[in-house]
Specification:
The protein is an all-alpha fold and about 60 residues long. The chain is about 80% helix and about 0% strand. It is rod-shaped and about 65 Å long.
Length: about 60
């Protein structure tokens, strides 16, 4: 599967893509990567909290 970036550089959108459009697409890709990173970090923190709670309940 091609990424949006690949499609724009190959001109497969049916017309040439302006620099502004390419920049906007790149910014969207970065924002999506940041969201994925934040979601993964939040999931990891949730897992750590659950483990902490499990361990502390075993101590009592």
């Amino acid at each position: 599967m091609s990424s949006i970036k690949d499609l724009t550089h190959k001109g497969m959108l049916g017309r040439s893509v302006t620099d502004a459009e390419r920049t906007a697409i790149h910014a969207k890709e970065i924002a999506l990567q940041e969201k994925v990173y934040q979601d993964e970090k939040n999931a990891h923190l949730r897992a750590l909290r659950l483990e902490r709670d499990r361990l502390s309940s075993n101590m009592h």
